[in-house]
Amino acid sequence: MEKFEKLTAIAAPMALINIDTDMIIPKQFLKTIKRSGLGVSAFHEMRYNLDGTDNPDFVLNKDAYKGVNILVAGDNFGCGSSREHAPWALLDLGIRCVISTSFADIFYNNCFKNGILPVIVAEDELQVLMKDAEKGSNARMVVDLENQSVETSDGEVITFDVDQHSKHCLINGLDDIGLTLEKIASIDAFESQMAHSAPWV
Amino acid sequence: MAPKTLYDKIWDAHMAHEADDGTCLLYIDRHLVHEVTSPQAFEGLRMTGRTVRAPEKTIAVPDHNVPTTLDRLKGIENEESRIQVDALDTNAREFGLVYYPVDDVRQGIVHIIGPEQGWTLPGMTIVCGDSHTATHGAFGSLAHGIGTSEVEHVLATQTLIQKKSKNMKVEITGKLSLGVTAKDITLAVIGVTGTAGGTGFVIEYCGEAIRNLSMEGRMTVCNMAIEGGARAGMIAPDETTFEYCKGRPNAPTGETWDAALAYWKTLYSDDDAHFDKIITMKGEDIAPVVTWGTSPEDVLPITAHVPAAKDFEGGKVGAAQRSLDYMGLTPGTPLQDITIDTVFIGSCTNGRIEDLRAAAAILKGQKIKEGIRAMIVPGSGLVRAQAEEEGLADIFKDAGFEWRLAGCSMCLAMNPDQLQPGERCAATSNRNFEGRQGRGGRTHLMSPAMAAAAAITGKLTDVREIM
After folding, report:
1. Which of B76, B247, B396, B444 meets the CB 3.0–4.6 Å disulfide criterion with B82?
2. Given CB atoms, is B455 within the 8 Å cutoff of chain A?
3. B14 SS3 class
4. What are the average pLDDT values for consecutive 10-residue runs of chain B, which has 467 residues?
5. Residue A199: its chain B contacts at CB < 8 A?
6. B172 pairs with which residues across the strands?
7. SS3 track for chain A
8. Kind of pairing, strands B15-18 and B24-27?
């Protein structure tokens, strides 16, 4: 997993609430057995017309947002299905950070496993960041995980909370499974105790 | 000892390790696996030389991609779908998992066959790379969806890194009125909480109306906890639960059953346990409902009218307008005037035998409206067999329904069962998102009885008027 320390990048505004994982990556693209290559299909139905041409109204199709690395989105981003294809698609598209007032639980966890930082801010803070993102390629936002802050192009600094374990793994690009396997003795012990006390499991 | 909720008890009983920073390793009793969210996880195991720690607790079944037409054993036409199902087949056999392949009569939707085969039992921790894993909470287990990286983590370690959620109680008091079902309860609750209302919580459903539900009904309620944003939904086990579990192929027997039962009877929230959020609704106040928009929170009684964007506040104004445009609806239209093209009865929400019985009760001796495409997709091969034995299949076929084989089918349209742009569907599934059942497809969620009624009239219909 790629480390996430500090990101200075263009942000795209997506003010819509409840952007669900079906919107982020529709089901026809879940048939892959790989993690890569989903970026071209991200936001498929909003991004492309029925004939396959680009929908010029979609934010990521606008010149000002080419090469964007941050999304600023409406409430409850990533709701719906557990598909990790959603963060895979965003990552493949170059998105390393999504900022919203809330995220669906599974999507939020999935982001951390893939080097994407989901940032939760208050409603008024989101409005500030949304306005900043509307400046397009004229502006750069700075997301600093170590200091848990987002700085607008005007220098306004907004801080955010993040779980310390998730932060540690993301900053260092650590593999969860490797860390857990270091505690294998505890798992072994728990399992033998369960085999005795709850043999039906 | 401090009073505990049902969730607290199961959480505490599965704590395999707690780090100084509060990060917990939760032991997982059952890991359910399907073909869509697992191939990358197995690939990860191979690349790192790891193996499956507890294959006997890992249950695999293909369900999302499988065709549900009667000729499906001739193979899957879509190449990508076929490769994905073949990959599960290879992975299940190579890693020695419990496996129900597509030609096994026990094959079906993962959340239907887990309980059916007795893999799902009270007090367990159950995960699956699928958000509707919440279904299994109906047994008083802690069950929730996970991403593919977490699937790999559970395969390798039989644990999950977790932070504890908060406790929410949703109490449905009193009795349900005629024509009101478990589906109406769960939709009505989401109508109140919104799709983000449960974020950060595990919901325990309780109250007389919940107690009076069968296991099938309880599974319908818990299934959609995720649509309310909750990590999991659960219902304390009782005699109804124990009766359902007893005699299932993988349920304990003899002395082990007795020991299990004694433990299961301790699984309830203590009287003075703390809930961070409590919602109470009267069963009598819940009507048969349908969704009008593209979020499961867009719920209204069938007797209501299509709302206008200005009826909402904040970010919902824009979202509602977008929904109205997408759904092709005019504010003020009575919901019962909305005509439909397709009816889909099935899914992990409503693909169990009781759902089929409810639909059959409405469809007996009736014909579907001319021009309507209607299909019933049983949740498992065994549900299908039972429905045939009970004569339900004949009722469906006589009414004009297609009688399919088991799978997820048109709930998410990964197999050939899809809506065309602009097509409108009365569906018993769980999500009405844009494009969910096919690009441009328009989905109205409702109970099996309501969907059956819509099939007869060709419109969204108040089932109470034809009962």
Report:
1. B76
2. no
3. coil
4. 96 95 93 98 96 98 96 91 96 98 97 98 98 98 98 98 96 98 98 96 98 98 97 98 98 98 98 98 98 98 98 95 98 98 98 98 98 98 98 98 96 92 97 96 98 98 95
5. 252, 256, 259
6. B281
7. CCCCCEEEECEEEECCCCCEHHHHCCHHHCCCCCCCCCHHHCCHHHHECCCCCECCCCHHHCHHHCCCCEEEECCCECECCCCCHHHHHHHHHCCCEEEECCECHHHHHHHHCCCCEEEECCHHHHHHHHHHHCCHHHCCEEEECCCCEEECCCCCEEECCCCHHHHHHHHHCCCHHHHHHCCHHHHHHHHHHHHHHCCCC
8. antiparallel
**CB–CB contact B256 A199 (8 Å):** yes
Q: At B231, is the secondary structure helix, strand, or coil?
A: coil
The radius of gyration computed from the CA coordinates of chain A, to the nearest angstrom, equals: 19
- B182-193 vs B215-223: helix axis angle to the nearest 10? 20
Question: Quick one: which H or E segment has residue B397?
Answer: helix B392-399
Q: Does the beta carbon of B422 lie under 8 angstroms from any beta carbon of chain A?
A: no
Strand partners, A48: A54
Cβ distance A84 to B131 less than 8 Å, yes or no, reads: no
Distance CA(A99)–CA(A120), nearest Å, equals 6
- Chain A residue closest to B413 (CA)? A27
Q: Is B343 in contact with B432 (CB distance < 8 Å)? A: no
Kindly indicate whether the ipTM for this predicted assembly is greater than 0.90, answering yes or no. yes
Alpha helices in B95-177 (DSSP H): 110-116, 148-157
Alpha-carbon B285 to chain mean position: 24
Check if the beta carbon of residue B176 is closer than 8 Å to that of residue B283.
Answer: yes
Task: Please count the residues of chain B.
Answer: 467
Per-residue tokens: A10: 């263009």
According to DSSP, the residues that pair with B376 across neighbouring strands are B345, B403
